[in-house]
From TrEMBL:
The keyword Transport applies. InterPro entries: AAA+_ATPase, ABC_transporter-like_ATP-bd, ABC_transporter-like_CS, ABC_transporter_ATP-bind, P-loop_NTPase. The keyword Flavoprotein does not apply. It comes from Kineosporia succinea. This is ABC-type nitrate/sulfonate/bicarbonate transport system ATPase subunit.
Length: 246
């Protein structure tokens, strides 16, 4: 059974057809990326999964059961403003659990063992403005995974980081995924990031979004950073860029 499946999704925003006939899925423990032109409807698709956007039609299932109004079976890390500036790191990383009704003290105990692997040990009482960009994104990701939902949605988590930090974060996330094997759906504009991290990559068409291409990424795991210099990697990167640019 798939962790997530979307069949025949149509979304119209105002008069604008944004998604038409979109089909995609993610198996349990699979890392799946979505690449697509800017404005093609990627975040809108995530909006449908989080309940922020109402679709015209479509069959959406999480672990086999239809998505419901107010469904909490996806944990979402937004593109921007993921952390509340007035809450400490600990207050931010427990927020997802607290919103779901977990008592603050219980939520704190739950996230504590994760502070170290997320590189946040000793920083729990700092505020977001006192952290580096990479640390902020790790805190936002910790808040998302702590919710222990069957599907993680990450909308361009490293998009605003400088190139060096981004590449460090990609390596770190790859290692964390090896350890925890979350089911991830990642939106990114970075073809290398998609290839380095994913088991499969979907390429969306220009709006209205549908799947223009689906590419299996079969490099063995765990993946070493040198993989991106491999000719087979470069060939797949070129193929994806061609699909993306047309
Ligand atoms: N509330 C809204 N009403 C009308 N149009 C909207 C609304 N929200 C988004 N749109 C439009 O829907 C289209 C798809 O937006 P969306 O944010 O899903 O694209 P995207 O693929 O995630 O883009 P990007 O890669 O730039 O983040 C865009 O043209 C956007 O302007």
């Amino acid at each position: 059974m798939n962790a997530l499946s979307i069949e025949g999704l149509d979304v119209t925003l105002g008069d604008l057809p944004v998604v038409r006939g979109l089909d995609l899925y993610a198996r349990p423990g699979e890392f799946v990326s979505i690449l697509g032109p800017s404005g093609s409807g990627k975040s809108t698709t995530f909006g449908v999964l989080t309940g922020a956007v109402t679709p015209d039609r479509g069959d959406i299932r999480i672990t086999g059961d239809a998505l419901r109004t107010g469904d909490s079976r996806v944990a979402f890390m937004p593109q921007k403003d993921a952390l509340l500036p007035w809450r400490t790191v600990l207050g931010n990383v427990t927020l997802g659990l607290e919103v779901r009704g977990t008592k603050r003290s219980v939520a704190r105990e739950k996230v504590r063992p994760l502070l170290e692997p997320f590189g946040l040990d000793g920083f729990e009482n700092r505020y977001p403005a006192q952290l580096s960009g990479g640390m902020r994104q790790r805190a936002a990701l910790l808040r998302t995974v702590a919710q222990e939902q069957p599907v993680l949605l990450l909308d361009e988590p490293f998009g605003a980081l400088d190139a060096l930090t981004r590449s460090q974060m990609q390596r770190w996330l790859q290692g964390m995924w090896e350890k925890y094997r979350w089911t991830v759906l990642l939106i990114t504009h970075d073809v290398r990031e998609a290839l380095y991290l994913s088991d499969r990559v979907y390429v969306f068409s220009p709006r209205p979004a549908r799947v223009a291409a689906e590419v299996a990424v079969e490099f063995e795991r765990p993946r070493r950073p040198e993989l991106i210099g491999d000719p087979a990697f470069a060939a797949l990167e070129a193929e994806l860029l061609k699909q993306l640019i047309g």
